[in-house]
Amino acid sequence: KAGVTQTPRYLIKTRGQQVTLSCSPISGHRSVSWYQQTPGQGLQFLFEYFSETQRNKGNFPGRFSGRQFSNSRSEMNVSTLELGDSALYLCASSLATGSNSGNTIYFGEGSWLTVV
Amino acid sequence: DQQVKQNSPSLSVQEGRISILNCDYTNSMFDYFLWYKKYPAEGPTFLISISSIKDKNEDGRFTVFLNKSAKHLSLHIVPSQPGDSAVYFCAASAQDGNQFYFGTGTSLTVIP
After folding, report:
1. Which of A56, A99, A100, B66 has the fewest CB atoms within 10 Å around its CB?
2. What angle is formed at CA B35 by the lines to CA A110 and CA B3, rounded to 5 degrees?
3. Is A75 on the interface with B (CB under 8 A)?
4. CB contact B106 to A (< 8 Å)
């Protein structure tokens, strides 16, 4: 069973540009969430999607957005990139049964974004 | 507001000894807790979880303990191995399970 797949793995962008990251969840998983990891900050929750609807959103500016497609694949977009957006962006998927009993999230390898 | 806290950024342990990683949370609605292990340049890997109806869950060398009254959980690794050297994150979620809150991580170094 394939794991969570994220593309691209590495990318370099210039300040002011925008970027789109892609995530394919584990087959059968309907919930996709995104996290940002920066040194010393742990994993900061960006947003979570289920059935193409954003259910939860973290405390990030509106420049960060996402969407989910009917096949559960998800994309996140960051517009007007700033130097501080340089981070590892992680996608995670789960079955999202509606109860958290055993509702483990599984992460992809991440997309390393460097803004110069 | 950090609802899940790992107050020790790093920990060093001799090979063969016990590693104890700690995690505290503030939200009493959290009732499901997980530990993840992360190597550099890789995504976090799920290790072990515990529901609030239990106070202990064991899986091989890994045991997680939950103290609900103290809002504290810990991960015990016995015996510690050099391959366990990684960053460990604890995470928590509430009943709906839709959003997970992560700590800032503890970097474990197991010295051969």
Report:
1. A99
2. 90
3. no
4. no
